[in-house]
Structures are given as structure tokens and as C-alpha cells.
């Protein structure tokens, strides 16, 4: 079978132990990203099975109509809105869902919190230019000694969304002596209470009281743009806003505007509306914003888990096992044996 793996930026997939599962198949791994439907169609014209790395490429009905040989899409992690599952079903293309782990994104979130609160990226950049113990961050609009940074103990960690990642983050916060404050749906609020955590009285209180606020929500029609400029403006001028979930959870341009106005004073961001982002992106130019290139799940253990499952799901479907299929109505006789 002809199999393609898209968007392997670091050429890591071929070096994973699980890559051997595809031995005997014709596998092509692409390291650069193309966005245009025409470019993607040319790249995938002979492909029968497509392996997607999270949401790096959108699979639309328009694209699928140009891929007559495609029969399988194997998703690393859960299939999201980036794949038109209805169009896949109409064309007899099965979509296979994988598994993931909350550990890597939770640890990345915590690393960003620690780095941001101690101004580590700014100090490192200054040191490389010969400046000793200089973080910058001396704008007149910033609070006094904002560039010094501060410890986490005794601060309030706000968490919006108390799922698997949120729960891990709350544990990290407790271990560091932080006061954890949770907001979310009623089920999340009750789960937080059951775990002995404080629940905010309102989303307004969450933003106003948090010294560090981290966003952990799924992106859907209900949550798109759920964080408004008015929410961010309630934060303290010394506060840190963290987003390792989805950029579209924040109202368009709201974060840039809020940072320019000094509330919150700092942000740490791992996700962007369009990825990879361009060099001139507004957030990259801001000294009070730490940006990472969507690294939440990018580490060896997560890659091995994601791809071992994605590859095994393809083999299982070819062998007549259908447990991972998200759209069973798409099964064709050739895949239904």
C-alpha cells in the first residue's frame, strides 16, 4: 500500500522504532508543509493511506475530490474539525482515530510557566549579547521591577478547563505551593471541588484573581473566541496568561491588544491561528510574550505513542479489524473483510 506521512517538520518519524511496522509498504514522509489544495493533490495523487500529524494539514472535501485512490486516513490522536469526516464517508474513506497522552502538553505548559515567571528566555537572550543579569522588560508601562521575575509559591494558578491536562497542571501547582483556582463547565467545577480545589465564582473572578492563568479547553463552535479582550484586561499587570490549547479560543487580535495595554503583563503561547507562523507575526515581536512552535506533544514518547497507534490502526483495518474507525459507514467491501 502507498502510504504518506505529512508535515514531519523534524524528519523524526522514520527514526522512530514504530516505523518498522510499515515495512513492506511504500511509505513517503514529507518534511515540508504545503497549504494549497492543488499542491497537496499533486503530492498525494497516488496515495492510498494518509497519516496526519495532529491538525497540521486540513483535509477538505475539495481536496478529497482530487484524491481518487485514497482509502484510509489515520489520525495521530483524535480526529478533529480539520478533517471533513462527512466528505470522507461520502467517498468511502475511513478515518482512523488514535490515542494521546496529557503528560507532554501538561509538562510543556508548566515549563512555559516557570520560564516566563523567572524571565528565563529574556535573560538567556540578553546573556548571548553580553548583558549580565539583564532581562529587558523595562518599559515605563510595566510594573516596577517587572523584569526581575518572581517565584510561584503563594501565587494563584487559574485553570480554565479541568480535563486531563488541567488536572495534571493543578497537581504541579499544588506541588509548587500555589493556590489553584478552577473554572469550567459544571462537571469540571464539581470534579475540581471533589479534588479539594477552589472554584471561581465567575469567569471574571478567574481572570481578576489569577497570577498565572492557563487555558485548557477543546476548540468547538461553543468555545471559539470564548476569551475576550475584556477578560484579558481584567488580569493584573504582573499576571501571566498561558495558552497551549488552541489559538482560536481567544478573540482575534485580543491578546496582542491586551499585552500592548499591559494587562496581562506577560504571555506564553504555544499555538497560533495558522501554523507554521510567519517570522513577522505580532506576538514574536513582543518582548513580554514567550512563543514556542506548538511543542505541546512534540517529544519522543508522545511521538512513539501517536505513530505506533496510527500505523497499527492501518494494519488492523487492512486485516479486517475496525475498532479505530471514526466513520464506519465509509467501509467499502475491500476494507470490510
Our count of helices gives 11
Largest sheet: 7 strands, parallel
Instruction: Encode the helix/strand succession as letters.
Output: EEHEHEHEHHEHEHEHEHEHEEH
Could you name the CATH topology of the largest domain? Rossmann fold
Radius of gyration: 22 Å
Oligomer description: single chain
Query: Low-confidence spans: pLDDT under 50, at least 5 residues?
Result: none
CATH class of the largest domain: Alpha Beta
State the fourth-level CATH superfamily of the largest domain.
Answer: NAD(P)-binding Rossmann-like Domain
Helical content band:
25-40%
SS elements, strand count: 12
CATH architecture of the largest domain: 3-Layer(aba) Sandwich
Instruction: Quote the average pLDDT.
Output: 95
Termini gap: 17 Å
Percent in strands: 5-15%
Structural class by secondary-structure content = alpha/beta
Describe the 3D structure:
The relative contact order is 0.14. The chain has two domains: 2-100 and 300-335, 3-Layer(aba) Sandwich (Rossmann fold), CATH 3.40.50.720; 103-291, 3-Layer(aba) Sandwich (Rossmann fold), CATH 3.40.50.720. The strands form two sheets. It has a seven-stranded parallel sheet with strand order 8-7-6-9-10-11-12, with helices on both faces. It has helices at residues 37-43, 61-64, 85-90, 103-117, 120-128, 164-175, 186-194, 203-209, 229-232, 254-261, 300-318, and strands at 2-5, 26-29, 49-52, 72-75, 94-96, 156-160, 179-183, 198-199, 212-215, 240-243, 266-269, 289-291. β3, α2 and β4 (72-75) form a beta-alpha-beta unit. With 337 residues, the protein is of the alpha/beta class. The longest helix is centred in the C-terminal third of the chain and has 19 residues, at 300-318.
Amino acid at each position: 500500500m502507498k502510504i504518506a506521512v505529512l508535515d514531519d517538520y523534524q524528519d523524526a518519524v522514520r527514526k522512530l522504532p514504530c516505523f518498522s511496522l510499515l515495512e513492506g509498504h511504500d511509505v513517503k514522509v514529507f518534511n515540508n508543509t504545503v497549504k494549497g489544495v492543488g499542491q497537496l493533490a499533486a503530492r498525494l495523487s497516488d496515495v492510498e493511506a494518509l497519516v496526519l500529524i495532529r491538525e497540521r494539514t486540513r483535509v477538505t472535501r475539495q481536496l478529497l475530490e482530487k484524491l481518487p485512490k485514497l482509502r484510509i486516513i489515520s489520525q495521530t490522536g483524535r480526529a478533529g474539525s480539520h478533517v471533513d469526516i462527512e466528505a470522507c464517508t461520502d467517498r468511502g474513506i475511513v478515518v482512523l482515530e488514535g490515542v494521546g497522552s496529557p503528560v507532554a502538553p501538561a509538562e510543556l505548559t508548566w515549563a512555559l510557566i516557570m520560564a516566563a515567571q523567572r524571565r528565563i528566555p529574556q535573560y538567556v537572550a540578553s546573556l548571548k549579547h553580553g548583558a549580565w543579569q539583564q532581562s529587558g522588560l523595562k518599559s515605563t508601562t510595566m510594573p516596577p521591577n517587572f523584569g526581575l521575575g518572581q517565584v510561584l509559591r503563594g501565587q494563584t494558578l487559574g485553570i480554565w478547563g479541568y480535563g486531563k491536562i488541567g488536572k495534571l497542571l493543578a497537581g504541579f501547582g499544588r506541588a509548587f505551593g500555589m493556590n489553584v483556582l478552577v473554572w469550567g463547565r459544571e462537571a469540571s467545577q464539581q470534579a475540581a471541588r471533589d479534588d479539594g480545589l477552589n472554584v471561581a465564582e465567575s469567569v471574571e473572578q478567574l481572570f481578576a484573581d489569577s497570577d498565572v492563568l492557563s487555558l485548557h479547553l477543546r476548540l468547538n463552535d461553543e468555545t471559539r473566541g470564548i476569551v475576550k479582550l475584556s477578560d484579558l484586561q481584567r488580569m493584573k499587570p504582573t499576571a501571566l496568561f498561558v495558552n497551549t490549547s488552541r489559538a482560536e479560543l481567544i478573540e482575534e487580535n485580543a491578546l496582542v491588544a491586551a499585552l500592548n495595554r499591559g494587562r496581562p503583563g506577560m504571555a506564553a503561547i504555544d499555538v497560533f491561528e495558522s501554523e507554521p507562523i510567519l517570522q513577522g507575526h505580532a506576538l514574536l515581536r513582543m518582548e513580554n510574550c514567550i512563543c514556542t512552535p506548538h511543542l505541546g506533544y512534540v517529544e519522543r514518547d508522545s511521538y512513539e505513542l501517536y505513530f505506533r497507534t496510527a500505523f497499527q490502526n492501518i494494519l488492523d483495518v487492512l486485516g479486517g479489524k475496525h475498532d479505530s474507525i471514526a466513520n464506519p459507514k465509509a467501509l467499502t467491501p475491500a476494507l470490510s473483510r
